[in-house]
Structure formats: C-alpha cells, structure tokens
C-alpha cells in the first residue's frame, strides 16, 4: 500500500525548495498550489466558481484571474475570506483526492505539498507529516522580499495561518530551513532514509 507523506509549512518557509529536491530524488509530489492554479485557469472549476461568486471585477483584461486583486479582496474581509475559502476548498479537496488516488496505484511513497494541511484538516490523509520549519523572523523577511509586501501586509498573511509553533507540535518530521541549502537537503536525505527503512 502506498505511503503518502504530507509536506507543510508557513507561508514563505521554503516548501518549494524541499519539493524540488524530492522530485530530483525521483519522488512524485502533488503540489496543491499548482493544482489550484490549474483549477483557476479560464474554464477551470475554480475559475467558474469564483467568477460566479465575485463577478468580473476579479478578472484581468485578458480574462484571467487577477490574483492580486482577489487576494486583496479576500484578505481584507473575514466574511469574504470565509465564503471564498469554503467555495474553493470543496473543489480543491475533490481534485487533490482524485490525483492522490491515481498516484497511490503506481507509487510506493509519494508526497503532497499542502500549505494549509492542518488548517483544512487534511491530517488523516497522511502516514507522516513533514513540516518545513523556519524562525518567525526568517519567515517575515522572506515573505516581504518575495511578495514585495509591507511588514504589516506580511504579518496579516502570516496571521491568517496556524502558527508555526502549533504546527511543530503536530508534525512528525521537522525540516529546519533557516540555514544553507545543503543543510536542508541533508535533513531531507536523512528523513527519506528513515522512511525507506520503515
């Protein structure tokens, strides 16, 4: 039976660094963000649902979703956030489950990268949960740099997720990602070895 490992971490903690390395090692990774982007393409299920819920104001001139506009609208209003989340989460969960079941037929071990793994209660999908862990300071400075956000905007986005402190308590494996790339990769190699031995 396939073993499925969940990968999570706070926003800007470096999950993509970890998943990229896992792919280089020959593992399959289902990336929830990538799945969401595909579903948000014009004609995709999420695109249609968001358009119905929020109207054409969330579109760019070329008819694609304006993620920045949608993000600003959602993060600025808790009611809109709740409405949007519920709508999107049902569609995303169905699609992730479909892809998970397909991979489980061919892979012994594979990974799913889910930023909101705990928040959206995906815990019971996994044999193990790996947390890509960083200090709060590292997370804040990376997020501000990556998304060109003010400190206040970045703090708001971080606050919208479960705290890293809480996630640490619930994860099986911590991949500490404050230091060098090689240091992070070595921790992944160690975790994979343990996994293969089980």
UniProtKB/TrEMBL annotation:
Catalysis: reaction(s): 3'-dephospho-CoA + ATP = ADP + CoA + H(+)
Subcellular location: Cytoplasm
Group of enzyme by EC: transferase
A GO MF label: ATP binding
Amino-acid positions noted as binding ATP in the UniProt annotation, renumbered to this chain: 12-17
Keywords (A to Z) from UniProt: ATP-binding, Coenzyme A biosynthesis, Cytoplasm, Kinase, Nucleotide-binding, Transferase
Coiled coil stretches, renumbered: none
GO cellular component: cytoplasm
Pathway as given in its UniProt record: Cofactor biosynthesis; coenzyme A biosynthesis; CoA from (R)-pantothenate: step 5/5
Single biological process term from Gene Ontology: coenzyme A biosynthetic process
Xref: NCBIfam families: dephospho-CoA kinase
PANTHER family the UniProt entry points to: BIFUNCTIONAL COENZYME A SYNTHASE-RELATED (PTHR10695:SF46), DEPHOSPHO-COA KINASE-RELATED (PTHR10695)
Function per UniProt: Catalyzes the phosphorylation of the 3'-hydroxyl group of dephosphocoenzyme A to form coenzyme A.
Full protein name: Dephospho-CoA kinase
Gene name tied to this protein: coaE
């Amino acid at each position: 039976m396939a073993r499925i490992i969940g990968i999570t971490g706070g926003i800007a903690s470096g999950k993509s660094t970890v998943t990229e390395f896992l792919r280089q090692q020959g593992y399959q990774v289902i990336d929830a963000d990538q799945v969401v982007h595909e579903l948000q393409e014009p004609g995709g299920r999420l695109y249609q649902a968001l358009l119905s819920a929020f109207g054409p104001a969330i579109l760019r001139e070329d008819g694609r979703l304006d993620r920045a506009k949608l993000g600003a609208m959602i993060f600025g209003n808790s009611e809109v956030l709740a409405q949007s989340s519920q709508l999107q989460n049902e569609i995303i969960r169905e699609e992730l489950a479909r892809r998970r079941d397909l991979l489980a037929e061919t892979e012994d071990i594979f990974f799913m990268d889910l930023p909101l793994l705990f928040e959206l209660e995906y815990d019971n999908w996994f044999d193990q949960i790996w947390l890509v862990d960083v200090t709060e300071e590292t997370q804040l400075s990376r997020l501000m740099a990556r998304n060109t956000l003010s400190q206040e905007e970045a703090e708001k986005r971080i606050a919208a997720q479960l705290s890293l402190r809480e996630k640490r308590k619930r994860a099986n494996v911590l991949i500490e990602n404050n230091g060098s790339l090689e240091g992070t990769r070595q921790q992944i190699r160690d975790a994979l070895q343990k996994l293969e031995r089980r």
